[in-house]
Design a protein that fits this description.
Layout lengths: L11 H9 L1 H13 L1 H8 L4 H28 L8 H6 L1 H11 L7 H33 L4 H30 L12 H25 L20 H10 L2 H31 L4 H9 L2 H17 L2 H24 L9 H40 L4 H30 L12 H18 L1 H5 L8 H18 L1
């Protein structure tokens, strides 16, 4: 393997091949954001608190394996590179776990369902970690250029968004529309079919990404001398990464963002179903509309990057996310939005969806792109290339707080007193009001915390150019 001397431009084919792998990860997000909480609490009958506890167990296990996989893949040496072997090995276990997720054995009871969900969540997330951490590190290693890195991440994020839109749309507009006289979102058999759909998408897209990026292996950083593995290495590596000042602020922002997002995603499907009273098909079409803002911000990314620093784009997107979370449900609570069933309400929902997707997309692109730049700073300071552990630490920062947020969201479902198995339109107004207050204004205000925590971040275009010059000079001296 050879180290690069200066930035190497990547073709569209390489970016697409890399980015399509994110669709496998998006299959997990689509399932857990849109269907898993609702399926286990409203269809199977698991209490919200036990659901939240199972989700927390899965997230904690996921966070523990992230640094482990990051350290192992950073230190791995083979003819297939450092990242690709782990990505390939994840395919079959991940597909199997999707099938198990929506097909719990009958007659388990509350504790049995909790144990089943916790076990499947741990297995699914571990299999996904074996792919996602090396895949994220691969994205940082494909290019050393300041702007090109954001472009690479944008392909990953955009294709992930497409899968995150297409899968819920297929589920809601097709599978869950099959309800007979009742609501299809309350039929267990529909979820079994959705599990098959998720398994197929995850397996195929990851296989495509692994196969069509394999030719990039000779151009990737070798990682330097191989270290003898010690089980304490992941902890040491994370601690060492956190010594970097800029990374600490990204890490803190990720912790806060993960915790708030955990509550938000747990309540999102309930909000669309009960608070707004949207049908399965309406929710599916609303989800599909996310394609438009994804395309718009993808096109605008390059001119935005030419004009603004990554940190400034992150701030703008973060504040947009806060404001958009406030006006939507908040507008209903103070009586300025149309009532449920009014055609104008559904039209206004598309405005909210556009702003939501645009803001979250930009945050998801800027954060890992900034981490890739931090990895360059770390290499200048220490002489070590540790992309895997940086992204593993980011995974830890997101996943444990997200798990805590999901647990809190599950508890809130019980506190709000949303009854199990209830049809849309039959929930008491007081319950809907409590759901709206939490899912709207409270979560919106809370998102200010991760945005403001990035204020001390100091790594701009000029600083990164100086870092790359130092690294390129080192490469010349060793070749």
């Amino acid at each position: 393997m050879s180290e690069e001397q200066g930035p190497r431009k990547l073709g569209i084919g390489v970016k697409l091949a890399y980015g399509v792998g994110s669709m496998g990860f998006a299959a997990k997000d689509a399932a857990f954001v849109n269907f898993v909480p609702f399926f286990y609490t409203q269809v199977v009958g698991l209490s919200g608190t036990l659901y939240g506890a199972a989700a927390l167990v899965g997230q904690i296990a996921d966070a523990i394996t992230d640094p482990l996989v990051g350290t192992i893949s950073d230190n791995h040496r083979s003819r297939w590179g450092r990242r690709h072997p782990f990505m390939a090995l994840s395919i079959l276990p991940l597909a199997l776990c999707f099938l198990m997720l929506f097909n719990p054995p009958a007659g388990l009871g509350q504790i049995g369902l909790f144990l089943w969900l916790a076990f499947v969540a741990v297995c699914l997330r571990t299999a996904l970690t074996a792919f996602a951490i090396p895949h994220a590190a691969l994205g940082a290693e494909l290019s050393t250029d300041y702007e090109e890195r954001s472009t690479v991440v944008s392909y990953r994020t955009t294709l992930g968004w497409f899968a995150g839109v297409a899968l819920p749309f297929a589920g809601l507009a097709w599978l869950f529309a099959r309800g007979g006289e009742g609501d299809g979102r309350l039929l267990a058999s529909n979820y079994v079919d959705y599990g098959w759909l998720s398994a197929g998408v995850a397996a195929v897209t990851i296989a495509i990404s692994v196969y069509f990026t394999r030719k990039q292996i000779p151009f990737l950083p070798s990682g330097g001398p191989r270290r003898r593995f010690d089980w304490r290495d992941p902890i040491r590596d994370v601690v060492e990464a956190l010594r970097n000042r800029n990374f600490r602020w990204v890490f803190v922002a990720s912790i806060l963002f993960g915790a708030i997002s955990g509550v938000s995603v747990t309540l999102g499907f309930y909000t669309n179903t009960y608070f707004w009273g949207f049908s399965s098909v309406q929710v599916g079409i609303l989800s599909a509309s996310s394609v438009l803002p994804t395309i718009v911000v993808f096109i605008l990314l390059r001119p935005l990057q030419h004009r603004f620093e990554k940190k400034h784009i992150f701030f703008a997107a973060g504040f947009l996310l806060v404001l958009n979370s406030m006006w939507w449900i908040g507008g209903r609570l103070i009586g300025i939005l149309p009532e449920n069933g009014d055609p104008w309400l559904y039209r206004i929902a598309f405005v909210h969806q556009f702003l939501l997707v645009a803001s979250v997309w930009l945050v998801q692109v800027m954060s890992p792109s900034m981490v890739a730049d931090v990895a360059d700073e770390f290499e200048v300071e220490t002489g070590a290339r540790r992309d895997g552990i940086f992204f593993a630490a980011m995974g830890f920062a997101l996943k444990v707080p997200t798990g805590l947020g999901q647990f809190v969201g599950g508890v809130l479902i019980d506190v709000i007193a949303l009854p199990s198995g209830v049809e849309p339109g039959q929930v008491e107004p007081g319950v809907l009001f409590r759901l709206g207050v939490v899912a709207g204004p409270l979560i919106g205000l809370a998102f200010l915390a991760p945005v403001l925590s990035m204020l001390p971040f100091r790594l701009d275009r000029r600083r990164h150019a100086a870092l790359r010059a130092q690294l390129d000079e080192r490469v010349k001296q060793t070749t």
